[in-house]
Amino acid sequence: GQQVMQIPQYQHVQEGEDFTTYCNSSTTLSNIQWYKQRPGGHPVFLIQLVKSGEVKKQKRLTFQFGEAKKNSSLHITATQTTDVGTYFCAGNGNNDMRFGAGTRLTVKP
Amino acid sequence: KAGVTQTPRYLIKTRGQQVTLSCSPISGHRSVSWYQQTPGQGLQFLFEYFSETQRNKGNFPGRFSGRQFSNSRSEMNVSTLELGDSALYLCASSLRGQGSYGYTFGSGTRLTVV
After folding, report:
1. In this complex, do A48 and B56 lie within 8 Å of one another by their Cβ atoms?
2. How many Å lie between the alpha carbon of A54 and the closest alpha carbon of chain B?
3. Neighbours of A26 (CB within 10 A)
4. What does the pLDDT look like over A1-32, one tens digit per residue?
């Protein structure tokens, strides 16, 4: 069945450093979504990418969808302590949304 | 508008018991999906309901079941609880199903099985 792999599992950065998390699917996705879950909270929708090669930006966050629609990345420029949390990708391939295991980001001030 | 409401927030149950969790989606959303979140397994898809019909089901045993009512509220039931069922159960509401335009998650029900 469809699997969505996400790396790295953990990332610890110094405030001001950049951060990237990668997502790979075993099958072609119709779309991919990104979520952020703060410690003790629930996942919150960030963005959806639909088109092959699509790039979207939200302030310091840049999201990319691969040309083959099998991979995606989230890049955060100049991390801040408010970026702390777990970032999940979720891919829609076989009529359901499958989540990656998430990348847990910690930021040292 | 009101968000996704899950009740109860916390539950402690004994092995062998059964439990029912409730979810009220955002007004106008006809799809409700359920996910199990554990530290080791991440977010695992349980099932999705759309207009009272189960549209898709994940790889969970038959002890896990759900339903959706005409007002889009959904319940999930777990029978014969096992220790491994301890998890955060998240309900996700979406407009047309399959996470279209993004899920809105509830705060979850944290189930502890002892």
Report:
1. no
2. 16
3. 14
4. 568 999 999 999 999 999 999 999 989 999 99
